[in-house]
Specification:
mainly alpha; elongated; Ferritin-like; DUF305_CopM-like; 40 residues; 85% helix; DUF305 domain-containing protein; 0% strand
């Protein structure tokens, strides 16, 4: 959803929120992938 906001959204506040969400989730996804790799 956040990526769609960046692609089509016009509201600067919502675009900033979308950027913040993507940034936070990328870190969380990376952390989860590292944990999953350690469980193999």
């Amino acid at each position: 959803m956040a990526e769609t906001e960046l692609k089509y959204g016009k509201d600067p506040k919502m675009r900033k929120l979308a950027q913040d969400i993507i940034k936070a989730q990328k870190g969380e996804i990376e952390q989860m992938n590292k944990w999953l790799d350690s469980q193999k």
